[in-house]
Amino acid sequence: MSTVKEAEAQANAGYLIWRLASRWRAAVDREVAPLGLTHAQYSLLASLYGLSRGGARPSQRELADFTGLDPIYVSKLARALERAGFVIRVTHPADPRAVQLSLTDYGVEIVLKAVRVVHALQERLTRPLGGSRGARTAELIDMLRQLLNEPDPQ
Prior knowledge:
The chain is mostly helical. The protein has a single domain (37-148), classed as Arc Repressor Mutant, subunit A, CATH 1.10.10.10. Helices cover 62% and strands 10% of the residues. It has helices spanning 4-9, 13-32, 39-52, 60-67, 71-83, 105-125, 135-148, and strands at 87-92, 95-103. Helix 3 (39-52) crosses helix 4 (60-67). It is globular and about 55 Å long. The chain starts with a helix and ends in a 6-residue tail after the last helix.
């Protein structure tokens, strides 16, 4: 009979990636909770902020595609964020079936605070790799992009 330590030593990459992702999500949840957010809500708000900085007003579907979240989940998140005063949802002018999202002033204020908190967390969590700007962190990011079959954004 093997121990938990022995089982962990024999773990496969998928299991370790899942455990790391679960821990990362839980850590982000703890950090953004004082701002009234969950990790998923933060992901949606931060993505919306990033996309809208250039003047875009993405639809919920576009935001789902960008974040990799399920469109139904994005819809639920967007409704909750609207009730909390973070976003405004309006019918898309080019497609009456689509819903366009934009941040409220309060949403911008909160997402900027959340981004600072999450960046500090990321720095702490990547410290064993040399920090968020370390060479080993860059290698890890490259490997994760390859596993996700995503192009380098540069």
